[in-house]
Write a structure and sequence with these properties.
The protein is α/β, with parallel strands linked by helices. The protein is built from eight helices and eight strands, in the order αααβαβαββαβααβββ. Helices cover about 30% and strands about 20% of the residues. Helix 3 packs across helix 4. It is globular, with a radius of gyration of 18 Å.
Length: about 290
C-alpha cells in the first residue's frame, strides 16, 4: 500500500480525500466504521508483510522491539481487568489470536496461574519461529501447556461449552491489520467464556497517530518497516465501545476498560491518562455471567 508520507504534511483537503477513499469512510456514523463484514480475517498482503519479519521476531532490538517493550503492560492491564472478579487461581486458559512469533503467548504460559495457552496465527513462517523459540524453555514443552497452530480464528471449531472456552482471549496488535474488523471480532466472541475477557491492543485513528506511526516510526526514525501500519484501518476507542454496547451479553457492571499508552524514547511505553484519544491503547471487555 502506498505510504501516506509525502514531502510535506497533507493539507486538510488531502487528509479528507484520503479518508473518503478508504474503506472506513463508507460509514455515516463513527460506530459504524467497525461494521463491515467478510468471511475471512486474513489479508494476504498483511500476511506477506509479517512473513518477511518472521526471522527478526525475537530480536529485542529489531523491528518487533516495540512489542517486546509493550508486553509487560499487556500483563498489567489483564491483571487489572481480572482483579475485581473471583477467579480460580491456577486454571486460566488463554487463546492468543494473531500470536505472531509468540512474545505474549510464551510469557502468558510462564505465569503460575496459567493452565494452558493456545496461540494461533495464519502465517506459517512466524508460527515456525514461535515453535522453535519455545523449544528453548523446558516449561513450555510440557504437553498442552503452550500450543501453536497455523490457523486463523475462523478455522477453529466453535466451543460447545464453557469448559471449551477461554478465560482470556487476546488480540494484540492485530485488529488494525484486519480488513473487516466487525466480522473478525464476531468470530472471536464465542471463544470467551462467561466471566472471561476479550483483551486487545490497537491504535486510534487520529492526526497524532498518523504522525507518530506513519511519518516518524516508518519514514523518519525507521523503527518499523515501511508498510507496517495502515492508518485508515485504525480503530478509535469509542468505536469499539459503541460496538460492544450494541452486543447483548458484554461489558455489564464495569466490564469494559480502556487505557492509553504513549511511547517515550529512552523510557519505553508509559500509561498516560486519556492518551487512548491520541494513539495506542489497550481495551478489554468482559463477557457477562448469566444469572
Amino acid at each position: 500500500m502506498r505510504s501516506l508520507f509525502t514531502t510535506k504534511l497533507p493539507t486538510i483537503t488531502t487528509y479528507r480525500s484520503r479518508i473518503l477513499a478508504s474503506s472506513w469512510t463508507t460509514c455515516n456514523q463513527k460506530a459504524k466504521c467497525i461494521n463491515a463484514t467478510t468471511t475471512s480475517s486474513v489479508n494476504q498482503t498483511e500476511l506477506s508483510h509479517f512473513n518477511n519479519l518472521a526471522s527478526t521476531w525475537w530480536d529485542p532490538h529489531g523491528p518487533s522491539r516495540l512489542l517486546h517493550q509493550m508486553n509487560p503492560l499487556r500483563h498489567d492491564f489483564i491483571s487489572s481487568c481480572l482483579a475485581p472478579y473471583i477467579y480460580s487461581p491456577f486454571n486460566r486458559r488463554y487463546l492468543d489470536i494473531g500470536c505472531g512469533g509468540g512474545i505474549f503467548a510464551e510469557s502468558a504460559a510462564r505465569l503460575p496461574r496459567t493452565k494452558s495457552v493456545l496461540a494461533i496465527d495464519p502465517s506459517k513462517d512466524v508460527i515456525e519461529v514461535a515453535k522453535l523459540h519455545a523449544r528453548t524453555d523446558p516449561l513450555l514443552l510440557q504437553t498442552g501447556h503452550l500450543t501453536y497452530e497455523n490457523k486463523s480464528v475462523e478455522d477453529l471449531p466453535i466451543p460447545n461449552s464453557p469448559q471449551d472456552q477461554f478465560d482470556v482471549v487476546s488480540l494484540f496488535e492485530v485488529i488494525e491489520h484486519i480488513d473487516k474488523p466487525a466480522s473478525f471480532l464476531t468470530s472471536c466472541l464465542p471463544f470467551v467464556r462467561p466471566g472471561g475477557w476479550l483483551i486487545l491492543s490497537t491504535i486510534a485513528r487520529t492526526w497524532t497517530s498518523w504522525l507518530t506511526t506513519k511519518v516518524m516510526a516508518e519514514e523518519v526514525v525507521r523503527m518499523v518497516p515501511r508498510g507496517t501500519h495502515h492508518w485508515e484501518k485504525y480503530i478509535n476507542p469509542d468505536e469499539l465501545t459503541n460496538w460492544f454496547e450494541e452486543r447483548k451479553g458484554w461489558g455489564a457492571g464495569g466490564g469494559m476498560k480502556v487505557i492509553g499508552l504513549v511511547y517515550v524514547p529512552g523510557l519505553g511505553w508509559k500509561v498516560i491518562p486519556r492518551a487512548e484519544r491520541l494513539g495506542n491503547f489497550l481495551f478489554g471487555v468482559r463477557r457477562n455471567v448469566e444469572v
